[in-house]
Amino acid sequence: MKNSLLVRTCRGIRSGRPPVWFMRQAGRSLPEYRQVREGMSMLESCQRPDMVVEITMQPVRRYGVDGAIFFSDIVVPLKAIGLDIEIEPGVGPVVAEPIRRPADLERLRPLEPDDVSFATEAVRGLLGELGETPLIGFAGAPFTLASYLVEGGPSRHHERTKALMHSQPDLWHDLLARVAQMSATYLQVQVAAGASVVQLFDSWAGALSRADYERFVLPHSTTVLQSVRDVPRIHFGVGTSEFLDLMAGAGADVVGVDWRLALDEAARRVPGTVLQGNLDPALLLADWPVIEAEIERIVTEGRAAPGHVFNLGHGVLPSTDPDVLAAVVEHIHTLSTR
Ligand code: 1CP
Question: Domain total for the chain?
Answer without folding.
Answer: 1
